[in-house]
Specification:
By secondary structure, chain A is an all-alpha fold. In chain A, about 70% of the residues lie in helices and about 0% in strands. The longest helix of chain A is centred in the last third of the chain and has 44 residues. Helix content of chain B is about 75%, strand content about 0%. Chain B is built from 2 helices and no strands. Chain B starts with 13 loop residues before the first helix and ends with a helix. The chains are: A mainly alpha, B mainly alpha.
Chain lengths: ~270, ~70
């Protein structure tokens, strides 16, 4: 094992899972279970909810026929999800899911954005609990939509038993159908969002902390190279911005496509 | 999982592609997994259960894709 200089440990390098743990913001509750209910992470979640509610309340307080700037922004976000996601994927029936899809899209977008906003610099979605809950909501929604549209028995028969094949093959096919429709969907939905935000945060930590560590090196050459590390941190921040928007869009898009599958009469 | 009779012209066919890929992958994974479990449970040597399971899964998944999109 190579010897690690002391300053590496001082700067918290290399970053690890410990960087995702936050102590309670209420000092008296620190270390207790209930203290974990109010950390930087949960604060950001409440903030995201508040920001979204306020945004729509303020921009829609007095809607005008010729929209103001704020109203135009709110309308174009909603319009984008309604036309670009709901109508595009689900069809005309999709309009009634547009409010849910817009909420999910905006919530994930704001939560993800904390990853690159100064002083927050970590997304709540890099804790898997939040993506799990979001994925479960979408999961139960698309099952409920399918059951309501086709009836309990028919919905599961359509999804688990492909029509028009000889019955002994159901022994082979039904397990595949069950796992791919009812198991991998919520898991991939949650893991995709979580892994993207987790990896993004680690990536930024590696380059930023790495830059700091290199700057403190005694070797002049390594000191100079820290510029490259900081430059990469900036480039990765822009890359992270792309991932943030993309993941919010992908989550809404996949939810819509699962709803479309549940509404379809047959496959 | 889109229906072929769908009148929408915007469907680029990528949906069907992803769904076919998903079927192939999950077919191999599901039956390979069941085979691996059998290996572990019955102490079958040389991963024969896993191998047979993956082949069965692949064949089933191919059949499903051909049936659905063929």
């Amino acid at each position: 094992m190579s010897v690690r200089p002391a300053f590496l440990a001082e700067e918290g390098f290399p970053p690890g899972v410990k960087d995702f743990d936050f102590t309670s913001l209420i000092p008296s509750l620190r270390g207790s279970e209930s203290g974990l209910a109010f950390t930087k992470i949960t604060f950001m979640v409440w903030l995201a909810v508040a920001v979204i509610i306020l945004f729509f309340l303020v921009t829609y307080r007095s809607p005008k026929l010729v929209p103001t700037k704020g109203q135009w922004l709110a309308e174009s976000v909603y319009g984008f999800v309604r036309d670009g996601v709901a109508k595009e994927v689900i069809g005309r029936e999709g309009i009634r899911f547009a409010p849910y899809l817009t909420s999910v899209f905006l919530f994930i977008l704001v939560m993800n954005s904390f990853a690159i906003i100064p002083f927050f610099q970590i997304s709540p979605n890099s804790h898997i609990a939040y993506p799990i809950i979001l994925a479960l909501i979408s999961y139960f929604l698309f099952i409920a939509v399918g059951v309501r549209k086709q009836g309990f028995v028919r919905y599961f028969r359509v999804n688990l038993f492909m029509p028009g094949i000889p019955w002994p093959l159901y022994f082979l096919i039904t397990p595949i159908e069950f796992i791919s429709t009812f198991l991998t969907r919520p898991v991939t939905l949650a893991v995709r969002l979580f892994a993207n935000m987790f990896a993004g945060h680690l990536m930024l930590l590696v380059f930023t902390l790495g830059g700091v560590v290199m700057l403190e090196s005694a070797n002049f050459f390594i000191k100079g190279l820290s510029v490259a590390s900081f430059a990469m941190a900036i480039i990765m921040t822009f890359f992270e911005f792309m991932v943030i928007v993309l993941q919010a869009y992908v989550f809404a898009m996949l939810t819509a496509s699962y709803i479309e599958g549940a509404l379809a009469e047959q496959h | 999982m889109t229906d072929k009779q769908s009148p929408r012209s915007t469907d680029p066919g990528s949906n069907a592609g992803w769904s076919a890929l998903g079927t192939l992958l999950s077919g191999i994974l599901v039956w390979g997994g069941i085979g691996a479990l059998l290996d572990w449970w019955l102490d079958i040597p040389k991963h024969i259960g896993l191998l047979v399971g993956m082949l069965v899964g692949l064949a089933t998944a191919l059949y499903m894709v051909l049936k659905r999109f063929g």
